[in-house]
């Protein structure tokens, strides 16, 4: 009897131990799953919010291009692929600057449509020095506005490293009063550079007259 009692006690103890271990193991596994599920939910939530924020920013850019720059919905959607506006402040400053330099609303619309990235430029540090340089050459606001509407990419070039060297090269070939003619009629010269366009096509400059040397 004593032996039978001990055997039953041993079985009961084993059963309790097994049950306890299984319970703890289950809690451990379940506890492991929760962070995984929680992490997955967070990832999905973050993706949702990121997608929503991106969509809102895109919608803001398109709306701004239509309402503030005069672009058509189709042109605004196309331009929004090249520029994304976070806030309107810098773009507003760029528009105010070029308006002050003579661009009409129609020219402004073309200016932005051809080069929407200009809306992200620093108006005081990047754009204004170039505008002042062109004005210093003697070009009128009206002609400058036409030039910017035709080739707004000219403002994306470096004043010190590209525009000034091109100007100095041009001055070595033609009189100073002819430089403005080049800027008004052939602004691509200041956009693409003299090494690509002028040297291979020097006869084009002769049409302007007064070439001193090559």
Largest sheet: none
Identify low-pLDDT runs: 1-35, 48-53
Report strand %.
under 5%
Structural class, from secondary structure content?
mainly alpha
Q: How confident is the prediction overall: mean pLDDT?
A: 75
**Proportion of residues in helical segments:** over 70%
One letter per element, helices H and strands E, the order comes to HHHHHHHHHHH
Tally of individual helices? 11
Q: Which helices and strands appear, and what pairs or packs with what?
A:
Elements: H1 2-67, H2 73-79, H3 89-100, H4 105-114, H5 123-136, H6 141-150, H7 159-171, H8 176-185, H9 188-192, H10 194-197, H11 202-206
In short, what is this structure?
The protein is mainly α and 214 residues long. The protein has helices at 2-67, 73-79, 89-100, 105-114, 123-136, 141-150, 159-171, 176-185, 188-192, 194-197, 202-206. Helix 1 packs across helix 2 (73-79) and helix 4 (105-114) runs parallel beside helix 6.
What can you see in these coordinates?
This protein is mainly alpha-helical and 214 residues long. 73% of the residues lie in helices and 0% in strands. The chain has a domain at 157-214.
Features:
single chain, 214 residues, mainly alpha, disordered N terminus
